[in-house]
Amino acid sequence: MSTLWIRSAWWDSFWILSGLPLAVALLLLSPSIYLTLALIILLEHTHFLSPMTLAWSHADFRALMLRRPMKFIGVPVAIILATTAIGVLTSHYVPSLHVDIGLRVRVYDFADYKQPFVMLVALYFVWNSWHFGMQKFGVLSIYRAKSGSGSRRTDMIYCLGVQAVSSIMVFSRVLELDRGVMRQVYGAVALLGVAAMLLREKRVSPRVLFILADAAGLMLFLWSGLWGFAIWSVNHWLVAIGLSSHVYAVHRGRSAAPFIAGLLAAGMIVFWVIFGSGVNMTTIFDPAFVVRTTLIAMSVRYGVAFTHFLYDRWLWQFSNPDVRATIGKDVFAGSWSRQGAPVPRQGASAR
Hints:
The protein is an all-alpha fold.
């Protein structure tokens, strides 16, 4: 069964399949807001940087990017400059928005959606939901190529369907949805979805564990926000960091530890640059300044997040032959041929 894992049973259990154990640990610890904030500071921006860092540190993929600098450099820079400009202009020329601005933005008045900054918030929510679902699809695709179980279309429908259903929860209070009814509906959707997926599996493999964890997350996050935070957010961040470090280690023929340590340090620095710079004890007592600064910081963050979404797609789109010939051969290591295509397995296909 060792060939069914991305790297090894222990490695996959921590980086890929850790959503449920993390949720249980957080519930037992009853974490304070400070522990939650520490996880966000440590992992969220680290995961933002992981595909960009891997792309530019991977010699083969870097060569591809240098042949198309407008796509891989020009577009991301333009996006970050555009979102930053929206934040600056909004902070100076829009007198009031019915929003709470912190590490997340909550919008309370639908009339504010005509403002460019709130449009960024809406775009981020939709794109981020798609991004979460596609990451899960990518993981199932890797396991599908290794196990020969499942199908590309079914995996995509399942992953995007689960993500879409869970995303509705964000609007439950605005839409005045009954949580009791939602639990029953979501539970039924999860059970039907996971049953349909498991019936297509040909063997017991890590795919089965990932499918079960995904379905459990859909049901359990309705009972506790910590379940959602651990199963959806923290696990999503760990998957991004883990896959990038795995490819780096295989490509360089060395330990992944320096790559992970460097990413963690860079992620915390980026978090401080975005949210910490400019705010000190002389300005913290000026609420207007803090609001303007935080609004601009969130706009920069959205630009970084959008760049992350693009690089994540460019880096892990295995249907692209250039990706298969560079990143793909390191993801699958010995399971890929010299031509960059998967070693044939009955029923296997990759994203």
